[in-house]
Amino acid sequence: MFQLKNVSSQLNKSIPAFSRRTLATMSSPPKPATSNGESVIEKAVAANAPRHNWTREEIREIYNTPLLQLIYNASSVHRKFHDPSEVQLCTLMNIKTGGCSEDCKYCAQSSRYDTGLKAEKIVKVDEVIQAAREAKANGSTRFCMGAAWRDMKGRKSNLKRISEMVKAVNDMGLESCVTLGMVDDAQVKQLKEAGLTAYNHNVDTSREFYPSVISTRSYEERLETIENVRQGGVSVCSGGILGLGESEEDHVGFLHTLSNMPQHPESVPINRLVPIKGTPLGEEQAKIKLPFDAVLRTAATARLIMPSSIIRLAAGRYTMKETDQAMCFMAGVNAIFTGKKMLTTMCNGWDEDKEMLSRWGLKPMKSFERTIVDPLKDQNEEEYVQTETTSLAGRTMSFK
């Protein structure tokens, strides 16, 4: 377990990256108390199980808590629900590159933009097996596969091949995850039968800002896919992208959407935009640098309002200093993407990440195993640590 003094000794190096607004809030007056005398963040820290009725006002209050206080409280919740020394290592492979009909303004794989990326056919199962073996040998325990499609309609042969990929990955003892665009009930059922662990479908940003980024798929369609996945018994992986030109209120907005789902996403990836030349956001957002404290605040807030979820640093992590990443771990992040590439963008390598985790006293999370408080065992919010096994998409998941 990494020690607080290690973070503190390097804190001065990170402070210049914080925004002026963040530094000002460190000396701001305490937030107003709730009706029983506790502040919203105090109630979040005291809770022994997740809740699903967060208001925007409450999330906004937590997000704007003085930064060091926010990190401390998020760290307390993280230690209450998770083993703080565990970090899930995930590797992402692009199994079908380019040619997507969507107009997501940040994406290199859209057929609408000239990014120099050529559309390719879906890869062979053997290529996935080889990549998954390499990932496992380097310590990754979840292997994710992404295809640049709007949806899976009319792709029966491709879905069959992907199901074979999922089974092969699971047979290696790795957790499996796919992101294939929109899926219906029958398609989720087929993936679950293959042993799929999780399905990724991000909400990207707030409902209000979403139309500024994407016009070819509605926010409701995204939520419908997520509900199809949840109802199909596959774990949901859903998060957002920071740096699209959105406001802090939009960070609050997408966290509000996720935290009020009937069941919180099993994992919440937090992506930092990597501006790609040729995309609408490639030129304009390259000139705007997202302050690091926005990432840190979002991660810490996610941990406080979705305490049992895995919070993952995803795309754009390679732009963050090691001390910045360590502060995110302190604030409750417990998963990272590692390997050769993040679909079409750069990714921190396995060796680099293993050295970093070792320096901070962290260890890889084992496949199909979590050290976590069970949020569903007791509806009276009494703390209960699950020691038996439970099923995750047909695969035994062990909780300690």
TrEMBL record:
| Cellular component, GO, one term | mitochondrion
| Pfam families per UniProt | BATS (PF06968), Radical_SAM (PF04055)
Signal peptide per UniProt: none
Start and end of every Radical SAM core domain? 85-308
Keyword Nucleotide-binding belongs to the record:
no
- S-adenosyl-L-methionine: is it a keyword of this entry? yes
This enzyme's EC code(s): 2.8.1.6
Could you tell me the keywords of this UniProt record?
Answer: 2Fe-2S, 4Fe-4S, Biotin biosynthesis, Iron, Iron-sulfur, Metal-binding, S-adenosyl-L-methionine, Transferase
Alphabetized NCBIfam families for the sequence: bioB
One of the GO biological process terms: biotin biosynthetic process
Q: What is the name of the protein in this document?
A: biotin synthase
Q: Which organism is it from?
A: Magnusiomyces paraingens
* UniProt family annotation: Belongs to the radical SAM superfamily. Biotin synthase family.
Q: What SUPFAM superfamilies does the database record attribute to this sequence? A: Radical SAM enzymes
Please share the entry's free-text remark on the cofactor: Binds 1 [4Fe-4S] cluster. The cluster is coordinated with 3 cysteines and an exchangeable S-adenosyl-L-methionine. Binds 1 [2Fe-2S] cluster. The cluster is coordinated with 3 cysteines and 1 arginine.
Q: Tell me its cofactors.
A: [4Fe-4S] cluster; [2Fe-2S] cluster
Please tell me where [4Fe-4S] cluster binds in this chain.
C100, C104, C107
